[in-house]
Structures are given as structure tokens and as C-alpha cells.
Amino acid sequence: MSFKRVVITGMGALTPIGNDVSTYWKNLVAGVSGAAPITRFDAEKFRTKFACEVKGLDINDYIPRQEARKMDPFTQYAVIASDEAMKDAGFGEGTIDLDKAGVIWGSGIGGLKTFEDEVLNFAANNMSPRFNPFFIPKMIADSASGVVSIRHGFRGPTFITVSACASATNALIDAYNYIRLGMMNVCISGGSEAAVTCAGVGGFNALKALSERNDSPETASRPYDKDRDGFVLGEGGAAIILEEYEHAKARGAKIYAEMVGAGMSSDAYHITAPHPEGLGAYNVIKNVVESAGINPEQIDYINTHGTSTPLGDPQELKAIEQYFGAHAPKINISSTKSMTGHLLGGAGAIEAAACIMAIQDQIVPPTINHFTADPSINPELNLTFNKAQKRQVNYALSNTFGFGGHNASVIFKKLES
User: Fold this and answer.
1) What is the pLDDT of residues 37-73, one digit of tens each?
2) Is the CB of residue 397 less than 8 Å from the CB of residue 285?
3) Domain 263-413: CATH superfamily, name plus number
4) What pTM was computed for the model?
5) Which of 298, 325, 337 has the alpha carbon at shortest distance from 381?
6) Where in the sequence numbering do the catalytic residues fall?
7) From 3.40.50.150, 3.50.50.60, 3.40.47.10, 3.40.50.300, which CATH number describes the 7-250 domain?
8) H or E segment to which residue 411 belongs
9) Where is each Ketosynthase family 3 (KS3) domain found (predicted)?
10) What angle do CA 323, 325, 327 make, to 5 degrees?
């Protein structure tokens, strides 16, 4: 059978360095850090006292108070990003068959803040079972896709993918495949996370996964630097409108890029640690490039998972070198988590948006906070340290890897008619 082409016609973003796509992208290119002391709660007793929080946001500027109260922050973020993406896509009246339009979202954790608040309230009230009637619908991860579907009247496939930090990328892959197969014409996809809570920070501290560079939060996320000491927790999300090409063309849509590749793999190794030889990373890169039907030498930019952890960073680069061989040093590689922190299940969405904008503007955002070379990392690799680089970007690849050994990657291409 012949597959339909899938293009990107709208985007929305709510991130630690910008509450819309334009601001987010401007600050990525400028190398702005979103890390700062935590304001969501008193973090004084925690080993990590900083995070990459969404800033300057009044939820009620976007969602009426009564509606917002029924949503966990991760769902609020999904709504805000999706509204921007839908507006950006410019759908006119009658241009969407609502029965063939869906919402496929990603979140690794879902309503953590809601769960934490309700349990603390239960304990504070002498175990009296006075739970909020919206506790369950606010907490469950699929509430984000459901609320967005209701908001826009989309009656096609609607669900959420959960694969830890690969969640949003898996959502994009599912949306891509549903459209390629003709089961949808339009899909709001992406992901969101709101894990900057006591339980979120405390849990990752217990895993020794977070940076503890409390004296300099803005330089704490330093992928590929010799002195990296863990990731910085982020929050927010992004929405991407995927649309069947002929459908988009027929309505005269603005098209950002074409999605041409989807790859997945599993490490089958450890619940939190990456495969020591980067096997899962190698396989997912191989799978996504083969899925796109291109030669490895056509990849211009890779937005890496690049969390700033001692184990994860070199394994991913090892996989890139093994797969791309002599072409690896010719690829621009960067980790935008150096600026946004790690949005967990929402990471793949904001990083896919960065890849799409790199194609649009022909510029690669940097990996900031590089101070000391890591002798275990090949110095010939172009890791786009500290400053954005202009270059031709026809194909951009985004990697995401999640706890449990879940790996998902996508490729975007500059549109050819």
C-alpha cells in the first residue's frame, strides 16, 4: 500500500524559556538558560533547590478559573500549547472533518501535583476521606488528550502515550502513523509535564539523577561537559499539528516541514540506566533513518536526548558515532536541555519543535554551559557548544530515551512539493 505524506502545519509551546513558540525559539538560539531557584514550593530542605519552571504565566489568561480548577497543571499546559498550535495552523470553518481529527498526547507522569496535594490533604485531615471530586480525572494522564479533544471537538482517535521521557515522541509517532494510514487527516500531538513538585524533585533526588549545583543553577545543565552532575528538572510542553499533505495543500496551509521517519527500540537492560554500549540508542537511530528511506549522510542536525548525566551522554554519542561513521563529525549535534532542562514526558515535543524551527530558519541552537572538555567524548564531534550555528538543515533528527529502556526518534525534512 502507499502511505500518505504527513506535514507540520501548526505549533504551540509553553516552556521554561518562553511561553509561545516564537519566544521559545528566540531564546534557544540566543542560548538562554531557564534554570533558577524553585518557586513552586519551599525547596530549602531538598538537595536540589532549583529547576526550569514555566515563568510569568497566569493560567486564567488562557483558561477560565472554573475550568482550570478541574485540571492538573500538566493538562493546563497541554491546553495552552494546543490552543496556540490550532491558531497557528489557521483552520478555517469547515476545513476539518472532526471525525477524522484526533489528539494523541504524551506524558510520563501525568497529574503528579494533584496526587501529591490530595494525599497531603488526606493526611492533614486525620485520614478523613474528603477527596476532591475531580481528583481522579485531574490525575489520570489521559485527561490531557481528553480535555484537548473536547475543547476542539475532535472525534477521531484520542489517547495518551506513556513511555517515560520518550512519551511525547511516541505520541508523535502514533499520530504520524495514523495519518499515513489514512485513519486521520489532522492530529494535535505533543506532550506536557508538570513534575516540579515536592514528590518530583524528592524522587529524582533519591535516584541521584538531578544536578545539585545550587550555587549556579543557570549553568547546572551542562551536557557533554566533564563536570556534569545530573539533569535539571523542567516543566511545560508543546503541541504540534500533524496533517495529511494533500489535506493541508487543499486548504492553502502554511507548512513548516514534513515528518518522514519514526523509529523505536528498547534497551532491554535496566530500569533507569542506559545500555552501557548504547545498543538501544544505536538501534533507534538505525530504525528511524531506515524508516525515512534516506542515507545516513543526509542527516544535518541531531537534537540529542543529552540530559547532562554522567552515564547517558557518552552512550548516546557512542551510538551516533557507531551508526554514522565518517559522517558523524559533519552533523551538528546539540542538547537543548542545556537551556530548557528536562521536561520528562514533554521533552520530545519541545525538542521536535526545535528541530522543525531549525529547518525553518536554517540555524542550529547551541548546547550551552560547556566549560571543560570530557576526555571520553570525541573532540571531532560538532556539539554546537555555547553558540548557535548557521547551516543548511534539510533533515533533522530528534532522540528521546526513557526510563525502562524506551527509545523513540523522529526525523523531519524540509518540505519538497
Assistant:
1) 999 999 999 999 999 999 999 999 999 999 999 999 9
2) yes
3) Thiolase/Chalcone synthase (3.40.47.10)
4) 0.97
5) 325
6) 165
7) 3.40.47.10
8) strand 406-413
9) 3-414
10) 110
